[in-house]
Amino acid sequence: MDDMKLVVVGAGGRMGRTLIRIVDETPGAVLHGAIDREGTDVIGLDAGVLAGLGANRVAVGDDPLPAFAKADGVLDFTVPAATVAFTELAAQARIVHVIGTTGLSAEDEAKVSAAARHAPIVKSGNMSLGVNLLAVLARQAARALDADFDIEVLEMHHRHKVDAPSGTALLLGRAAAEGRGIDLASHSVRVRDGHTGARPRGDIGFATLRGGSVVGEHSLVLAGEGETIELTHKATDRAIFARGAVKAALWGREKKPGLYSMADVLGLSE
Q: Is residue 157 flagged as an active site residue?
């Protein structure tokens, strides 16, 4: 089979440049296109040079249509509005869309689900192997320990991250809620301020920290009477997310249309 032709959108960002480097080093994958917003200073630059590689003769463009038309897949760690637009275009082209974008609204999620009827979409709040294993452990721990153990999700990211809680924190929260057989939306505490009263039994709390250049740190804490269990993942290099995304694209190449998760890619789905 020919190498999978991949398009990186948001090519000028930190994740975009990392994705370009990882595609370059991954057997079976080749960079077919690099897209960024119209008017940015990276338009027209060589994508390889932009990513710190040698020239690869793929110029960064601002029109995804020509790139998508002859590609096999799209790698997308952009922003919700852009992701919604890209998922519709990828569905029209019947190519794999790997979505690492976080902060999507319920309306955005519905549009992604609709697009998945026409093309394979792999979407996850975190593309790393370690985090997805952590989610499996979170689900199992929450199932094994009843509501006498309070569940808290703690996360910290760099100062530039714009959404909170992080997609990974929500991924862990959903896994714990599934383990408990409850709906996260109705048992989620996102903010505590002032005189809040005692902690409601069975709720899942979230704490968000921002600062410095932290790539991502997440912990699921189960706190019982006299004992505490902590499951923690620390990311020190965003390349782990890029490697997972490229792995997801290669996995999805032969899949039928549908909405898949990173757990599906890694064979961790229950």
A: yes
152: Cβ–Cβ under 8 A, 6 or more apart, which residues? 204, 205, 206, 207, 220, 221, 223
Q: Side-chain half-sphere of 178: how many Cα atoms within 13 Å?
A: 14
Is residue 158 part of the annotated active site? The answer reads: no
Q: Which of 123, 157, 218, 233 is catalytic?
A: 157
pLDDT, tens digit only, all 270 positions of the chain: 899 999 999 999 999 999 999 999 999 999 999 999 999 999 999 999 999 999 999 999 999 999 999 999 999 999 999 999 999 999 999 999 999 998 899 999 999 999 999 999 999 988 998 999 999 999 999 999 999 999 999 999 999 998 899 989 999 999 999 999 999 999 999 999 999 999 999 999 999 999 999 999 999 999 999 999 999 999 999 899 999 999 999 999 989 999 999 989 988 876
